[in-house]
Amino acid sequence: MIPQELQDLIDEADMHMDEAVSFLKKELSHIRTGKASPALIDGVKVEYYGSQTPLQQLANVSAPDPRMLTVSPYDKSSMEAIEKAIMSAGLGLNPSNDGEIIRIPLPMLTEERRKELVKKTKEIAEQARISIRNARRNANDAIKKAVDEHSLPEDSKFEAEEDVQAATDKHTELVEELLSHKEEEIMTV
Question: Strands (DSSP E) along the chain, which ranges?
Fold first, then answer.
C-alpha cells in the first residue's frame, strides 16, 4: 500500500504526462496531411484592432472539399488582415480573397514535402517524450525527498517509483501510437 503523500506525487506526474500527450495531439492536428482540415489553421493569430486574435474568433473555417479550405470572416473589414496572417503563418498556403470569403487551395503534397512533415512530426513527438521523462524524473526526485522527510518505509518508495514508471511507459506508448498513425496519414497519397 502506497502512502497518500506518495500517491499524490504519482497522480501529479500522471497529470503532467497527460498534458504532454494532449500537447502532442494538438500539435499533430496542425500538421497537414493529404486532406483539408480546419485544424490546419487553428494556430493562426490575426492582428485585429491592435491585438493578436485567434482566427477561430474572427471567422468560420470549413473544408468544403478535400483540397480546399474556406474562411468566412464575421467582419468583412478584417479580410485583408486574415489573409495576411494566413500567408505569414509559415504553412505554405496562398489564400485568395473574393470580397465575401477567403479560399485556401491546398496543393498536392510532394514526396519531399511529405518526408519533411514526417520529420517535423517526429520532432514534436520527441518533445512530448522529453516532457514525459521530465515528469518521471521530477516525480522520482519528489518521492525520494518525501520518503526521507516523512520517514516512510523504503518499500513504499520502490512501489511508488514502479507506478511512476508504469505511467511513463503507458504515456510513451501513446506517443508512439499517435506518431505512427500521423506518419501513415501523411505518407498516404
Answer: 45-48, 51-54, 59-65, 68-73, 96-97, 102-105
